[in-house]
Amino acid sequence: MRYVLSLLSTLLLVSCGGDGRLVFDLMPAPAAFTDTGIKLPDQNKRVKDTLMDQIFYATDRAPATPGDKNFLYSSKRGNALRLGRAQVESGRDDLTWQDARKISLLKTRSEKFPIKVKGADEYGVLDSSVHKYSRVSQEDRDNANSATQRYINEINAQLAKSKKRTINIFVHGYKVTFENPVLTTAEMWHFLAYDGVFIAYSWPSTPKTLAYVSDTETALVSARHLRDLILFLSERTKADKINVIGYSAGSRVVTRAMGDLAILQNGKSHAQNKKELKLGTVAIIAGDVDRKLVSGYLVDGADKLMDQFLIYQSDSDKALFMSRFLTNRNRLGETFSLDSFDAHSIQYLEDNPHVVLVDVSNAESARAGNGHGYLRNSPWVTSDLLMALAYSPTPKKRGLVRKDPKIPLWAFPEDYTQRLGSALKHYNPTLFD
Hints:
- This protein is α/β, with parallel strands linked by helices and 433 residues long.
- The chain has one domain (27-61, 157-432): Rossmann fold (3-Layer(aba) Sandwich), CATH 3.40.50.
- The protein is built from 14 helices and 13 strands.
- Strands 1, 2, 3, 4, 5, 6, 7, 8, 9, 10, 11, 12 and 13 form a 13-stranded mixed β-sheet that branches.
- Helix 6 (212-236) packs across helix 7 (250-264) and helix 7 (250-264) packs parallel to helix 9 (291-299).
- The longest helix is centred in the middle third of the chain and has 25 residues, at 212-236.
- Mean pLDDT is 88; it is low at 1-19 and 43-51.
């Protein structure tokens, strides 16, 4: 089945464009491009050869219907995982994607580059997400196999022309609409020079502040679909590695999926899990999830699923402060104080160096705004994440240092950009030719 979802209505959001669609100004250039001395390649040919406006997505949102004030997909829970590609376009008629390449790599920009979602081409539902009792249409059932195969074919085609056969899945936070993860995914794929595949995973969060509690429950429901997506991609595509990024409340979706996978893979070794699931870096950014809950997932074997479990934390994240106030529980994205590490926790981290805690508090612009949006606001954090996705180095090898020599808690040093440049030269010396 092939059909294009049309524009149904405007979004009642503060960050909207004039026609009601969500608009992002392209995030600041990662420090890797502006402060390390790399030679920026001529991307014009790559721009022409790549369908850079086509972003893969997977969503368990219900399709929007006339009158529900949503664009493409609603905030209601769907009954299956829907697959497709979204079209991202410039928010300015006078700018092209070639202009984006020039503007986006400037450390200080004289003009903004807005992007927005133009529309989406939904292929249909993932065949493995539909069972005998699923409440989906007969048309969806009849076309599930062909829709799924089309998704596989297009992912494999993109992987075939990439330097690295890597799939990256981005999972958004609470209180956003379908377009938010699509635009964030477009930004990150842009700064990875459109290599590999990026998939925006859009779960049905609600763009209302008072929906926090209901979104918490929905995140757990969506974790099952994310788990199925990871299994599907590892078994049925030609990917060598799958990375997963969970932001804010999206960390509940990701960590629960990891907990479920740990139970499914029970008894298997780290090497077996990596071979079967192909998980590389699983990154949790500004994680709005109970620390103890995640600890339980790790004890159940989630720490044996991937190359690296990367946890970013901050001491100035006001959104997580409010979440802790509401739940009376410490959040994963809040920085551990050094005196909170006892002998057992230190020993665990020493024995499991692939579980990495990174304090971003001193990273450039990490405290901007309410301190929760450092994924997009901090050129240092973005660079570290992209390094982890692209090369999977240890924190030391990508320029980080321990906050205390005795404790495996990592941080950004003052000379981070120099260290980052050395790391890039080690992993990809052609960047400096």
